[in-house]
Fold this sequence. Notes:
Layout: H1 5-16, E1 32-38, E2 46-54, E3 60-71, E4 77-79, E5 86-95, E6 99-107, E7 117-129, E8 132-140, E9 161-163
Antiparallel strand pairs: 1-2, 2-6, 3-4, 3-5, 3-7, 7-8, 7-9
Amino acid sequence: MRRRTPVLAALAAAAALPAAAAPAPARAAAEWATVNVCDTAAHPDTIGIRGSIPGLDRPTVMLMRFRVQYRDAAGMWRALSSDRADSGWVRVGRGAGGERQAGWSFTLRRPATGGSHRLRGKVVFLWRRAGVTVRRRRAVTEAGHPNTEGADPVQFSAAECVVR
């Protein structure tokens, strides 16, 4: 007669161990935006907004639009109603796959009453193929993207900017 006890005991012991984590599936790059310049000595009264747009599986023309928003007295984010706070559409690349980055800097007037402006960026991402929009996304600026070209200081990445 066979002894099944050792096999059952081994299976029970194995079931009690934590399972090995399966490798995570490859994640497609996501679009993002960050503030990479905020009222520095080299860039006074300026907010710099940078974004990254991933290419799609098929070739497209990739565009971004950079806008500045301010926080009002009620704590709501509002678009600055000025041509100086909107980049218009910026063509950042054409092709499939990969990732493209672009940025725009806005120099603003200091508050006339003193005080400060609390600002952030909003970026609209657009993918077009044969003149037709195939994808559109939006992102507001967030911290955590330290390797952006033109950052001041180097490695700077923030969600908001206060211009005094």
